[in-house]
Amino acid sequence: MRIKFLVGLLLAAFLTGLFIVAAPVQAADPIKIGAILPLGDATGKDGIRSMELAVDEINKKGGVLGRKLELIVIDDEMKPDKGAAALDKLATVDKVDVFVGGMSSGVTMALIPGMKKYGKVTVWIGGASGKIEQALEGQDWFFHLHTWDYQQIAIFNQGWDEIAAKYPNIKQQRQFSAYEEGPFGTNGFKATKGIIEAKKFVIQGEAFKSAALGGGDYRSVLRHAKEFNPDIFTWVGYDKDAIPMLEQAKEIGFAPAVYVGSPPAWPVDFAKSPLNEAVVFYSMWNEAIKNVSKPSKAYSDAFHKKFNDAPTTYFGPLAYTNIMIVANAIKKAGTVEKAALIKALEATSYDSPTGDKFVFGKSKFINHQAYASPKIMQWQKGKVVVIWPFNIATGKLLYPFPAWDKR
After folding, report:
1. What's the whole-model pTM score?
2. pLDDT tens by residue, 97-150
3. CATH number belonging to the domain at 31-147+289-358, selected among 3.40.50.720, 3.60.20.10, 3.40.50.2300, 3.40.190.10
4. Distance, CA of 275 to CA of 271 (rounded, Å)
5. Residues 6+ positions from 62 with CB-CB distance below 8 Å
């Protein structure tokens, strides 16, 4: 009996030892990445699918550090309170290692208290208001992958200066800006006003409530713009504003020489709308320039293959870049430990599908800023034409914007 007992004890210890040794050989816990995006918006749809594409590609190659990536996505519905709740859940319930994503500046503003509370490494592709940049000054865990509003405005004004120099018949001395009343629109208009007035041009602006946030009647703003008679009219809002803004402009007969829409994305079916002709817009990428680089074409081809569809916004390649930069940094750091990961992210040099090399540097207030170069594009015959920069242009500016009764 005593021998049997000892044999049993040794056997149990052996089996326990096997279990202890075998446990680390089993699949390690995944690296969790928490994404917050507006899934009902074209930016969110492109963003999440592009993140999934990146995660799939990484996991098929064995993951990172022998661990799979797990993408946990929460829809912020473009509502600040929903975004704040999403961040709390990702941090406390899902216990993610890194925060990614982001689109709306209004939602991002609401996330900042939570971001500071948890202090997790955050690599963000949206939230372009300069107010966000100021609020995150000195936060070494924050990395931004989008131009700030003042950067965009300066670059686009440079573009118009070059266009006007090449085509002297194009005027830009009188400008009207209609902007959504949130932090991106209001802060952006202040920056725009400063730049335009410094050029000794005249600018007038007025806020509107975006259809994405319960608004949708732009008639008063459009009438004031028509009375002002601008050389360039620009509206800054969301994709839900695009068609009703044009419908109401047509209704009152407002057809400025240059009509610019500046949403982060266009409605999915906007290419089929008869209203789109000669509408100018600002973007970081479009399939019209997918051949600008090998990474751009590879991303586009892979997206088509996986989803049998095309990315319609620059948030697609930007979101793909978001995941790839995080994954590369984790691999370089050899850990998800905060200090090491920050140091690895600071050494980022990534050839993005946007056609740009992403390298972090200091902006006005934050230490970690990288972005895709903005471009001026135009809808022509239902397709997108790149107008500027001239070195990647696929067409010339259709000017002036045709009168509604001459289409």
Report:
1. 0.89
2. 999 999 999 999 999 999 999 999 999 999 999 999 999 999 999 999 999 999
3. 3.40.50.2300
4. 9
5. none
